[in-house]
Structure formats: structure tokens, C-alpha cells
Write a structure and sequence with these properties.
82 residues
């Protein structure tokens, strides 16, 4: 696990690198008072997955968005395969 790792065109909040060949890499983007689609789009637009695609060719990478709504005091999450 890496925090604020330089990936693509910016820094991903958290990246999880697979230890074993069969494990899946994933990127976590955290947002406050935003929509989960905004976080997923940031992962895509800033190309955070490029590093994983180079390291783990032909394997899937998961984009995970976790958002917190401070008014309603609720979390929401979206996971998408990239």
C-alpha cells in the first residue's frame, strides 16, 4: 500500500499493489462533499492506472471511489474495473 503515490498526471490518495500474481491492484480516491463519479473520473483523467498497467500487463485494475457527505454524515462508494 502506498499513500499519495505519484501516478499518471498526479498523486493517487491510496494505491494497493498486488503481492501475489493473482491479486488485483486497486486505486482508492477519497472525496468530501463530492459525487463518486467525480472521483472515478479523476482516476481516469489523471491516468492513475498507467503505472499498474505497465507493471501488471493484461490484468485488471480496480478504481475505488469513497466519498463523504458532511451534511448527511454518510459515505458512499463505487468500484469500477478499468
Amino acid at each position: 500500500m502506498e499513500r499519495e503515490e505519484k501516478t499518471g498526471k498526479g498523486y493517487a490518495d491510496f494505491t494497493f499493489h498486488p503481492r501475489r500474481k493473482n491479486d488485483i491492484a486497486f486505486i482508492v480516491e477519497l472525496k468530501k462533499d463530492e459525487n463518486v463519479d467525480v472521483a472515478i473520473n479523476q482516476i481516469k483523467l489523471k491516468e492513475y492506472v498507467q503505472k499498474f498497467k505497465e507493471e501488471n500487463q493484461h490484468k485488471k485494475v480496480l478504481a475505488v471511489a469513497i466519498c463523504y457527505n458532511s451534511k448527511e454524515k454518510e459515505h458512499c462508494c463505487k468500484i469500477e474495473e478499468i
